[in-house]
Amino acid sequence: MQPVHFISGLPRSGSTLLAALLRQNPRFHAHMSSPLAGMVDAMLGEMSDRNELAAFITDEQRQRVLHALFASYYGAEFAAGVIFDTSRKWCSRLSVLSEVFPDFKIIACVRHVSWIVDSLERAVQRNALRPSFMFNFQTGSTVYNRAEGVAFGEGIVGYSYNALKDAFYGRHAHHLMLLQYETLVRDPAMAMAAVYDFIGESPFPHDFDNVHFDAGEFDERTGMPGLHAVGRKVVAPERTTVLPPDIFRRFENDAFWLNARANIHGVTVV
């Protein structure tokens, strides 16, 4: 099977834009989140000791089954030389991935958490007539309810934030690179050069003024049209927050990756 790398990290932090740029390289396949992380979890569960027949499954067989799962999913129709699979779950699965793909790399997209919550709230307000999947399609909540909902441990932000810390401070951190959204949109050429260097691939002349990505059908089904929309040109957005000041301040010191003294494994932060 061709080399497999992973895109993960925090939501609303540039993973879709990164995939859209990587797709410009004809050697690469990249897209928005795939179902593979959930499929891996399901297979691990079925091969665990909750299955009384697991006594007949060795770790070598588990490894082969998971590798075959990727090989089957990315079959002959994916002719790319390098695969990038995307899921926020991958940051919490580095131990598993290291058993299946010893040489894998994982690019975790990060962003100041206040602006992530702001971006999610903007998406909710933009689709006021379409209740969101992020809140189980419930109606009548306030911005405070929604901020709490995304930030708690199993929320879309809280889970991915904890998974990112798990990877950053864990023993497999050498597989990890953090790509800041702010860098990607302000200096995309430098950001992409760092990605290529990290994965050991030859540079490619990306077109930052002509980016294409379409996930409109998926976004429509989730009740949030435009959620994964990518602008034609890579630019840094200039805007004020839609969040109340107290909510914005709540998250403004959560960018732990900016603390060089806390980077105990020397993870590359771009």
From TrEMBL:
InterPro entries, sorted: P-loop_NTPase
GO molecular function: transferase activity
SUPFAM superfamilies referenced in this protein's UniProt entry, alphabetically: P-loop containing nucleoside triphosphate hydrolases
Keyword terms of this UniProt record: Transferase
Name of the protein: Sulfotransferase family protein
Organism: Rhodanobacter lindaniclasticus
Lineage of origin: Bacteria, Pseudomonadati, Pseudomonadota, Gammaproteobacteria, Lysobacterales
